[in-house]
């Protein structure tokens, strides 16, 4: 198979694309991959580090208000469209897969104009503008949440497939997670993380929660601060009573997140699509604090989807403080039966076979295209 992947801007778009590429390469040894992104996006660093050939086009997003910037965006789109057609004609892929971000627009649209089968993957409950636009031209659409399907009601081949990132973490070894933290296997602990860069509001609530956390017996807290907040957190944690200090560990970043997540009793987290795919793939209960600082507030519907299924408790950032966070964490950690019900609900939402499902969808699109020729 010759496969073009495209998606960029954030890891939430990039890692699903890489997971799809990895699945195709495993299923068909000798598969050739090409990734098309932007030179300024995170993908320009992540993708080459994975040994995957990378080409770039330049594109920017539309402003929601009338602006000269939108005129420049149209010009860039047309230029990126022409550049994408050149790359696709040269590479001759069997299919093009887009996972979101502005760069998908010209690449997937160019593929559709050239008669190349296309598949787009939507990670969030509420689709982004790019995927909404592309769904009119895509051969197939895969979504992470069943709640997304009504947004693609006019697409003939739309499927609830899950997030392919889930397939990468499903077999994580919890024993390695405990060992990396220096904890005995089976130690109950809450993993609190505000995203790879940390989140000030989440960190502050965790700090405010700590005096009350002392009452949770033998429960430990692993607090992932983000690098920019790590020194400040360490300074504040130094003032904790010795008995509590033994049960609280601050880390700037976790490099083996799937293993640590697999070992966790409960996670306090933002509600990014890839994070939720990992959480549900491993069946971990969660307290979700959706970020209000993302496009279209898309994390809140993500969190609501888990909360309505009983897999999570949601706290909006406007309601977040040490008291509200402690109340949620305590009620779950003090009630093993409830925690197990939440874990079961989380596992019920998990789709560790997502990458394989999307791979099969790709094959269907390729076969359908060949029949039409």
TrEMBL record:
Domain of life, per lineage: Bacteria
Pfam families referenced in this protein's UniProt entry, alphabetically: Glyco_tran_28_C, Glyco_transf_28
UniProt-listed Enzyme Commission number(s): 2.4.1.227
Record-level Gene Ontology MF annotations: undecaprenyldiphospho-muramoylpentapeptide beta-N-acetylglucosaminyltransferase activity
NCBIfam families attached to this UniProt entry: murG
UniProt family annotation: Belongs to the glycosyltransferase 28 family. MurG subfamily.
Identification of the protein by name: UDP-N-acetylglucosamine--N-acetylmuramyl-(pentapeptide) pyrophosphoryl-undecaprenol N-acetylglucosamine transferase
């Amino acid at each position: 198979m010759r496969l073009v992947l495209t998606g960029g801007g954030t890891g939430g778009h990039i890692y699903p694309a890489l997971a799809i590429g990895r699945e195709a390469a495993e299923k068909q040894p000798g598969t050739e991959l090409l990734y098309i992104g932007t030179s300024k996006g995170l993908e320009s660093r992540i993708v080459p580090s994975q040994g995957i050939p990378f080409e770039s086009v330049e594109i920017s997003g539309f402003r929601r208000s009338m602006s000269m910037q939108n005129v420049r965006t149209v010009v860039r789109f047309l230029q990126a469209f022409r550049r994408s057609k050149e790359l696709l004609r040269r590479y001759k892929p069997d299919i093009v897969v887009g996972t979101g971000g502005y760069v998908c627009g010209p690449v997937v649209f160019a593929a559709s104009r050239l008669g190349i089968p296309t598949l787009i993957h939507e990670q969030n409950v509420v689709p982004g503008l790019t995927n909404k636009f592309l769904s009119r031209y895509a051969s197939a659409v895969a979504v992470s949440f069943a709640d997304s399907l009504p947004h693609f009601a006019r697409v003939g081949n739309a499927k609830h497939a899950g997030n392919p990132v889930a397939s990468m973490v499903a077999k994580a070894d919890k024993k390695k997670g405990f060992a990396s933290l220096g904890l005995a296997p089976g130690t109950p602990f809450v993993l609190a993380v505000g995203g790879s860069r940390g989140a000030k509001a989440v960190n502050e609530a965790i700090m405010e929660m700590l005096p009350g956390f002392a009452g949770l017996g033998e429960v430990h807290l692993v607090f992932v601060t983000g690098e920019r907040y790590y020194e400040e957190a360490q300074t504040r944690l130094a003032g904790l009573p010795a008995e509590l200090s033994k049960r609280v560990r601050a880390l700037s970043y976790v490099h083996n997140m799937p293993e640590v997540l697999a070992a966790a009793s409960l996670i306090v987290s933002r509600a990014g699509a890839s994070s939720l795919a990992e959480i549900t793939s491993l069946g971990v209960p969660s307290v979700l604090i959706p970020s209000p600082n993302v496009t279209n507030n898309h994390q809140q519907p993500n969190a609501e989807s888990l909360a309505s299924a009983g897999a999570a408790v949601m706290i909006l950032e406007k309601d977040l403080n040490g008291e509200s966070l402690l109340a949620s964490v305590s009620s779950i950690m003090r009630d093993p039966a409830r925690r197990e019900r939440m874990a079961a609900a989380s596992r019920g939402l998990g789709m560790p076979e997502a990458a394989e499902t999307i791979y099969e969808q790709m094959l269907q699109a390729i076969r359908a295209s060949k029949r039409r020729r």
